[in-house]
Amino acid sequence: GIDLNQVQQQLQGGRQGAVPANPADMPQPDIIQQPATNNGPGGQFGNGNGQLGNGQAAVPSRLEKILSDRAGTPLVQYGYSVFGVGRAVSVPQTGAMQDDYVLGPGDEIVVSLRGQENADTRAYVNRDGQVVLPRLSPIPASGRSLGSFRQDLLNAVQRAYVATSAYVSVGRIRQISVLVSGELNNPGQRNITGLSSVADAILLSGGIKKSGSLRDVRLIRGGRQYNIDLYSVLTERSGGRDMRLADGDRIIVPLLGKAVAVTGLVRQPAIFELPAGQSQLSVSNLLSLAGGQEVRGSYRLSVLRIQQDGRNNLITVTVSDTVRDSEILFVQLDADQAVGSATLTGDTALAGKYPIITGTRLSDMLRAPGALGTSPYTLLGLISRRDPVTMLRSLISISPIAVVSGREDMVLQSDDIVRIFSIAEAGVLTPTVDEFTDRRSQNDLFLRDPNSKFATGTTATAALTQGVGQGQGQGEGSGAEDRQTIAGLAERRIGADGAAVSGFEETPAIQGRTSRIFTANAPQAPSQEPATQKLTFAEIAGQLGVSPLILVNYLSDHLATLTGAVRGPGSYLVGYTVLLKDLVTAAGGTNNWTNEGEVELTSTIVDPATGRSQTARQHLSLRGEQLANYIVKPRDQLRFNPIFTDVNVGRITLQGEVHTPGTFELTRGERLSSVLARAGGLTNVAYPYGTIFLRKSVAAYEREGYMREVRQIQDQMMLAMSRAGAENQGTDTTFVQNMLKELSSQTPLGRMSVIADPSELASRPAMDPLLENGDVVYIPPRPATVTVLGQVLSPGSFPYDPAVDVKGYLEKAGGYSSLADESLTFVVLPDGTSRRLDRSWLSFRTEALPPGSVVVVPRDLSPINLRQVVIDVSQLFSQFAISIASLAVLSKQ
Predict the structure, then answer these.
(1) I want to staple 513 with a disulfide (CB 3.0 to 4.6 A). Which of 80, 356, 431, 558 is the partner?
(2) CB neighbour class for 718 (10 Å; exposed up to 12, middle 13-18, buried from 19)
(3) CA distance from start to end of the chain
């Protein structure tokens, strides 16, 4: 504490310079009183800043833990954030003192006389309780209010002085001693000022423990007891008061009284202590303590009432009812009356506890506006129901769309958990279950029942992983892989974006299934809607009170598959009363070209009693009663066949010497002559004999043939090298290997030799080729050159002369070089075909060499000792040369 002498020294120590003419007007610094500290062993304070050193106010009390567990949400005791910790108290030394201030020994009185007498006098209330001033009789002051004392002083001045006015104020405040005891963090004797209140003394004593009362603080003064309710300081209620202290007062903080709690949509959910002597509080008063309902609307009020046998029962109440000791008031959006409780969970604003009575139905909960959320998945929901004997939970599938439309309903039971899924959640749940089903069919480990290995109702993936990995008779590597697989599925995180966020690396197949689910008709969430909390598969299982393995196995029995001409093909989770029309709607509907008169349905009926199953296939119609009345069964497979048409079979590119070149859509069975006619026919300079016709499928076959020949030559070369001596290897083999590497890296064109002359196609319909998607046709202009390539002295292109034969063009190119192999000379004709030159060609002089032809002279490979390898390479090279020559001709046009 701080005594009066210390306060006077602080005030005087801060003064510098001359004393003002009126000392009463001198500014006085505020007195800051620090809370008492206990730095000894086991002390609760000692951080030197007036706060609790170990955060006592933040530690949950036993009452908070019990009521929080009952409410299912954290609750704290009201008021202890203010009065539960020690704080410094500031005593102002400036400003006018109120007339109700009670004077006592040690208070300084400042009297200013103005008029015929001008003087400033300071005097203290002495131990006799009197104030002695010059020329005045002693005036009683102790125990009197400042206003009463001032009036007596003014009357005395009027009697003693002529034409003089007096002004009275309090200078320095006295110090008093009070005893603080009971449920405080640091009880004891406190030295405080006369302006201090009961609340000041409590704060200077470290605050009230959570085991202490805020509503029945007792002040003992002169043999009388005053009860103080500190809630009057925290709220605007006028039921209590915070009295100023006097010297010798005693403050006692008794144990915490009876308490109630309120949670839900109120401004201040908390645990509130009941007024002293009361065991219950009206609902309206409790709502008032909690600041009222959070937003305007219709609410349901329910109390978790404690029965005589100790069981808790949730009942519906009104504002005129009462809440008794240790009971909890729930304030939630409107729901029906109930004596038990069921929980609605999922991506919905109405999630929470619902009171139910005997006969309350699922439709009563789900038909409320907004109960299904903004983007619900209405084909499947789940109810987790606790068995009253075993206390274990089991799952029941529901179809929210059927419940809302009146086709499905059931009576809710106490402690039911109703889980509604959103489209985003289903978009990840479905491929997760689909992936699990695929892996289970491939691995015997998933067919076993591991539920006995770990407890249900947990969300810890470690328990699931440990249960599957133990006692399964698997090898170390296999068990590790399986544990990782199940852990990944359980920890796949589900969010509003419909993507797997963490815990599982998705394969491309899973990514495809995830991305296509509900993308056709999924509504966009409003921008003002809060983002959905991301949940893992294991956390959803935890909401339902079952293990992730039980949940994924249960959902795997509720898959239906749509394939074919629907906008959202894939697997869908369905309940037992989903109509085909609802499933088709969820899939985005059928394509415009769907054969609605014949939908292939494959259903499997399982008889667990006999251990037999029967698979049947039938055809449904999407029109009429079958669409409206057929109920989809789990494991159903529906294929929507597209209507057979002759359009949209592909495109062909036509370039070159046609009147309207470009890309043309094909119909089934269309031929080249038809496209040439659609393009307006050939121009007058077109050269149909040199048509370049490229096809992707032919290019693929050529590529396969090239690689096959390369592999065969490599094998023969290795065999020849093993038979030949080391002296015959080296340069020869390097040359062959480089050539094979070059050949294997070439991209084949896929050229076909076709007839493109419309008149000839009309006379020979069998030669008119059927077109395929991706075909490329180039009609070049009539060329005027013949090209000579390969081992000649001067390769190049030469003007076409019908009178010149092959020999003549070779002579124009300078003849054979020293490395030429004359016996292997061949000609590539403009249509892409090739012919090997023999003796008969040397005298061939007329149409044998049309314009645009290419004469190719290969290199003589006789220096290589691997003769057989050379022959095979020559054959491959001859084929490759055809493509090279074709490219050369095409590039020149």
Answers:
(1) 431
(2) exposed
(3) 108
What does the pLDDT read at residue 788? 93
Which amino acid, one-letter code, is at 575? Answer: G
Place of tokens 């290795």: 718
Distance between CA atoms of residues 318 and 400, nearest Å: 31
312: number of Cβ within 10 Å: 12
819-822, long-range: CB within 8 Å, 24+ apart, which pairs?
819/791, 819/859, 819/860, 820/790, 820/791, 820/792, 820/857, 820/858, 820/859, 820/860, 821/791, 821/857, 821/858, 821/859, 821/860, 821/861, 821/862, 822/857
With cut-offs at 50, 70 and 90, classify the pLDDT of residue 310.
confident
Distance between CA 483 and CA 489 in Å, rounded?
10
Give dist(CA 52, CA 558) in Å, integer: 57
DSSP 8-state symbol, 570: E
271: which 2 tokens? 């645990």
| 789 close to 885: Cβ distance less than 8 angstroms | yes
Provide the phi-psi class of 188: left if phi over 0, else alpha when psi is between -120 and 50, else beta. Answer: left
**How many other C-beta atoms are found inside a 10 Å radius of the C-beta of residue 297?**
9
Residue from 616, 485, 634 nearest 571 by CA: 634
Number of H helices, E strands in the chain: 23, 41
Extract the tokens encoding 354. 């619902």
- Token representation of residue 534: 């991301």
Residues 755, 693: Cα–Cα separation, whole Å: 10
Question: Cα(380)–Cα(423) distance, rounded to whole angstroms?
Answer: 11
- For residue 509 the two structure tokens come to 């197949």
- From the list 255, 304, 383, the residue with the least C-alpha distance to 69 is 304
Q: How far apart are CA 153 and CA 149, in angstroms?
A: 6
Confidence of residue 710 (pLDDT cuts 50, 70, 90): confident
In DSSP notation, 294-360 reads SSSS-EEEEEEEEPTTS-EEEEEE-TTSEEETT-EEEEEE-----SEEEEEEES-TT-EEEEE-TT-
Q: Is 580 left (phi over 0), alpha (psi -120 to 50) or beta?
A: alpha
Q: Which two tokens stand for residue 170?
A: 């309090």
**CB–CB of 372/421 below 8 Å?**
no
- Whether the CB-CB separation of 177 and 191 falls below 8 Å is answered with yes
Angle, helices 476-490 vs 423-442, to 10°: value is: 160
Please choose, from the candidates 153, 135, 136, the residue with its C-alpha nearest in 3D space to the C-alpha of residue 144. 153
Band of residue 451 on the pLDDT scale cut at 50, 70, 90: very low
What residues are paired with 225 via a beta bridge? Answer: 220
Closest CA to 795 of 817, 780, 768: 817
Provide, rounded to the nearest whole percent, the portion of the chain with pLDDT above 90: 36
The first and second tokens of residue 853, run together, are 């032809």
The C-alpha atoms of residue 103 and residue 91 are separated, in whole angstroms, by: 16
What angle do helix axes 548-556 and 423-442 make, rounded to 10 degrees? 90
Cα angle: 163, vertex 168, 172; to 5 degrees = 150
pLDDT greater than 60 at residue 605:
yes
Bridge partners for 594 per DSSP? 642
